[in-house]
Amino acid sequence: MILAAVAVLVGLVVLVWSADKFVDGAVGIAEFCGMSTLLIGMVIVGFGTSAPELTVSAISAAQGNPELALGNAYGSNIANIALILGATALISPILMQRSVIRGDLPILLLVSLLSIFLVCDGSVSRVNGIVLLIVFAAAMGYSIWREMKKAKAEKADDSQNSSDTSLQAEGETTQKSSLGKSILWLVLGFALLVASSRSLVWGAVEIARALGVSDLLIGLTIVAIGTSLPELASSIAAARKGENDLALGNIIGSNLFNTLAVVGFAATITPMGDVEAAVVSRDMPLMTILTVSLMVLGFRRGGGDGRLNRIAGVILLLVYVGYLGLLVAQAL
Question: How many CA atoms, within 13 angstroms, populate the side-chain half-sphere of residue 103?
Fold first, then answer.
């Protein structure tokens, strides 16, 4: 029991640190390639901060604990919106562009509804997992195409402005140096992600068995919150620096990744034949309702950009506290 607790603690610490370095490397590479802030948030940062969920869920499924993988994915989605966006908005209100409210959030909502449809029969087959992975590839491909098209148009406008040649050459040299460092952090961060995730899964499963608590509950709480810490740190840091696109794109991209790729990979490795009814009746509906709430809270009359203010942040945090209270009450 003590050894398992130490494994969870050390695993979480290394997981958070390695995810942070992994994201630094990914963002550095993305900036070198000239990608937009929203695309970095959704694809690079969203993928990077969801790497813990992916590795934890894949290892859990491979070790015969698919419910831990499922609870980790959906629990992380709930934590991302209610806990992370709530805390971020409380610190610094988040600007929500009209394109996000009318484009990205509806896609996330459709993905959530798709996942409910696939899991409503109480199982997640290997075929369902493959379907989720195909939808993930399509969604990411569309997002990359859209944002790259937008960035290309903006670059064409900027090219009309003249720049100093010597400063440009100096900037290119600095970028090449930063690129090497970014690649190093990317590789090292991912390697430590895998090792720390294995430690975390082992410790969580051992604690669950010792306390008589289900793997699903452990995945929805301890593992979900622990693997969501990279999203929390990166979102708060981005919001404080005024990078609203990065903060919001991080959560949207992360939830898309969790719902489609994380669950898809886990189900492809080990099909889940007997999903707990609480997942369909409690966790997945709440995940969907929270997605809708973002659209409602960020909506602004007149069709302009919206804002996730501090009041909205408090509401989201209270929802998460209530959710954790419900989990504990049902486990007793």
Answer: 15
- Beta partners for residue 308, in sequence order: 94
Across 138-159, average pLDDT: 72
Contact (Cβ atoms closer than 8 angstroms) between residue 289 and residue 105: no
Percent of the chain topping pLDDT 70:
75
**């698919």: which residue's tokens?**
66
Interacting residues of 96 by C-beta distance below 8 A, sequence separation 6+: 244, 248, 294, 298, 305, 306, 307, 308
Q: What is the pLDDT of residue 295?
A: 82
Distance, in Å, from the CA atom of 225 to the CA atom of 246, rounded to the nearest integer, reads 20
Domains in the chain: ranges and CATH: 38-177+204-331 (1.20.1420.30)
The C-alpha atoms of residue 101 and residue 303 are separated, in whole angstroms, by 10
Cα distance between residue 310 and residue 245, in whole Å: 17
The H or E element spanning position 94 is strand 94-96
Take residue 30 and report the two structure tokens written for it. 């993305």
Residues 6+ apart with CB under 8 A from 39: 30, 143, 144, 147, 148, 151, 249
Q: Counting every residue, how long is the chain?
A: 332
Please determine, for residue 45, whether its predicted confidence score (pLDDT) is greater than 50: yes
CA distance linking residue 10 with residue 147, whole number of Å: 38
Q: Could you tell me if 11 and 200 are in contact, meaning their C-beta atoms sit under 8 angstroms apart?
A: yes
Average pLDDT of the chain is 77
Residues 190-209: tens digit of each pLDDT: 778 767 777 877 887 787 77
